[in-house]
């Protein structure tokens, strides 16, 4: 695992331990919104808001950040 992947893994571990929703941007310009269900050595299991449960490998991830919460009208707070 390279340094960037290790940094991503540490961020995801933090969000996982804090039970926070995440916004994950991948190198291929795809993104996922959801909650981390579990952590593995080279990937995490994400419960994506639209796609359901899926593995996301740390090597695929460009950036991860806390997911903005939505108000009822769809605007973030």
Tell me what you see in this structure:
The chain is 19% helix and 43% strand. The protein is an alpha+beta fold and 77 residues long. The chain has one domain: SH3 type barrels (Roll). The chain is globular. The chain starts with a helix and ends in an 11-residue tail after the last strand.
Please sum up the structure shown:
With 77 residues, the protein is of the alpha+beta class. The protein has one helix at residues 3-17, and strands at residues 21-26, 31-39, 43-48, 52-57, 61-66. Helices cover 19% and strands 43% of the residues.
Could you name the CATH topology? SH3 type barrels
Q: Tell me the strand order in the biggest sheet.
A: 4-3-2-1-5
- Percent strand: 35-45%
Query: What's the shape?
Result: globular
CATH architecture descriptor: Roll
Helix content: 10-25%
* Number of beta strands: 5
User: Could you tell me how far the N terminus lies from the C terminus, measured between alpha carbons in angstroms?
Assistant: 35 Å
Query: What does the largest sheet look like?
Result: 5 strands, antiparallel
The whole-angstrom Rg is 12 Å
Structural class: alpha+beta
Number of structurally distinct domains: 1
Q: Which regions have little confidence, pLDDT < 50, spanning 5+ residues?
A: none
Overall pLDDT metric: 92
Order of helices and strands: HEEEEE
Please give the count of helices.
1
- CATH class category: Mainly Beta
């Amino acid at each position: 695992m390279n340094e960037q992947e290790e940094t991503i893994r540490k961020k995801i571990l933090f969000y996982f331990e804090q039970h926070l929703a995440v916004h994950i941007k991948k190198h291929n310009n795809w993104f996922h919104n959801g909650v981390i269900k579990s952590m593995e050595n080279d990937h995490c299991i994400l419960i994506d808001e639209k796609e359901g449960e899926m593995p996301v490998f740390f090597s695929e991830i460009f950036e991860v950040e806390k997911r903005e919460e939505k108000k009822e009208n769809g605007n973030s707070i």
